[in-house]
Write a structure and sequence with these properties.
Blueprint (H helix, E strand, L loop, with lengths): L11 E5 L13 H15 L3 E6 L9 E3 L9 H5 L6 H24 L2 E4 L5 H4 L8 E5 L5 H8 L7 E4 L2 H6 L8 E2 L18 E4 L8 H11 L3 E4 L5 H8 L7 E3 L5 H9 L3 E4 L9 H8 L4 E4 L4 H4 L5 E4 L4 H12 L3 H11 L2 H16 L1
Parallel strand pairs: 1-2, 1-4, 2-3, 4-5, 5-6, 6-7, 8-9, 8-11, 9-10, 11-12, 12-13
Helix pairs in contact: 1-14, 7-12, 10-13
């Protein structure tokens, strides 16, 4: 009998998450939201998922907490001039312990390992495992991860990338990354009625550019509601907080249900990356809510948006973005929802990963 989602094979999946933040609502960022959704979708398809994640993550996801704690170091080691920071050591120790455990008896408990962390050790230590390892590339190339790939003449890891843009960015080191775009649960992000304000959501950090969203909304004469965790307190205090008021309001870090209501009740979503966005989960979430997107043409945004559901301005140009807002708010909300359902649904993503797991374990 087929499991929900259409798969007929139940697999035992070790899903490795980032150790930096718990995988639970309200999510610290897109990586945590993605990992939570993937774990849930795979479980709903009948797979047995064990999530290795930071302490405090959602226990309903088959959680096994990563041992994120500082190793006990001697005074001599702590005094060494090359001693890295405490957070770096804790994360390194956690992944080292996990990979050693999986190397020792992982094949007894799992059919496949899917690494969604940003750490180099799951890639560097993959040859020690006697089962397939999949690593998803969520970011532009990093020196530690490129080094881990190149440490082996024939790296045994199967790589996926969250967008064609990200796959191209990694091509020099990982020439055959398969594109599996991130998906959102369109049931948890329902189509909303729209409204008069604009919305901006995400981590309030310089690379997401919320200050430019405020500038563009103000130039367009539209109110703007912002929501998300403050990831860089100094940036928020110096560049965002002084712009609040006069139609721009920060609502805090909302859980998914409250955020979906906010996004679904907006006329359009502003997406203002100041870096080459590897995917842009907030774009998919907005489209699922039927909310058109007006953003900067950076990274993968151009892969997700079509003229029917969004508008793109030159990167960093708040004035050009403001000029496109009147067009964006007039776009068909049903077309936005249909784009999410067809192009970036959670079910489609889970299906592609399941097919990959089955191929590797055949």
């Amino acid at each position: 009998m087929s499991a929900p989602g259409g798969t007929s094979t139940s697999l035992r999946i070790a899903l490795i998450a980032s150790a930096r933040f718990p995988v639970r609502e309200p999510f610290a960022g897109g990586l945590e939201a993605h990992t939570w959704s993937l774990a849930k979708a795979l479980t709903d398809r009948g797979h047995r998922v064990r999530l290795f994640a930071a302490p405090g993550s959602d226990p309903a996801l088959g959680l096994r907490e990563l041992p994120v704690h500082r190793p006990v170091l001697s005074a001599a080691a702590r005094a060494d001039v090359s001693m890295p920071g405490a957070a770096w050591m804790a994360e390194h120790h956690a992944y080292l312990r996990l990979m050693l455990d999986l190397a020792r008896d992982g094949e007894r408990h799992f059919d496949v390992v899917h690494n969604n962390s940003l750490h180099h050790l799951p890639v560097a230590m993959a040859p020690a495992l006697r089962l397939p390892v999949v690593t998803t590339l969520h970011t532009p190339p990093t020196p530690w991860l490129e080094s881990a790939v190149q440490a082996q003449d024939d790296c045994p890891v199967t790589f996926t990338a969250v967008s064609a843009h990200t796959a191209r960015a990694w091509r020099a080191t990982v020439p055959a990354a398969r594109v599996v775009r991130n998906g959102v649960d369109t049931g948890l992000w329902p189509e909303g009625p729209g409204g008069s304000p604009l919305v901006w959501s995400g981590r309030l950090v310089p690379e997401k550019g919320p200050h430019l969203a405020v500038e563009a909304a103000r130039k367009a004469g539209r109110p703007l509601l912002l929501a998300g965790p403050v990831g860089d307190r100094r940036y928020f205090t110096e560049y965002v907080e002084p712009l609040l008021g006069d139609g721009a309001e920060y609502l805090g870090h909302l859980d998914r249900q409250a955020l979906a209501r906010l996004v679904g009740g907006a006329a359009a979503a502003l997406v203002t990356p100041c870096w080459d966005e590897p995917y842009g989960l907030v774009v998919a979430e907005a489209l699922a809510c039927g909310t058109p997107v007006c953003g900067f043409d950076r990274g993968a945004l151009g892969e997700i948006l079509t003229p029917e559901c969004g508008r793109l301005a030159p990167a960093g140009d708040a004035a050009a973005l403001a000029e496109l807002i009147p067009e964006a708010v007039r776009l068909d909300r049903r077309a936005a929802r249909q784009r999410a359902e067809r192009f970036c649904s959670l079910d489609a993503m889970a299906g592609r990963y399941t097919a990959l797991y089955e191929e590797l374990t055949a």
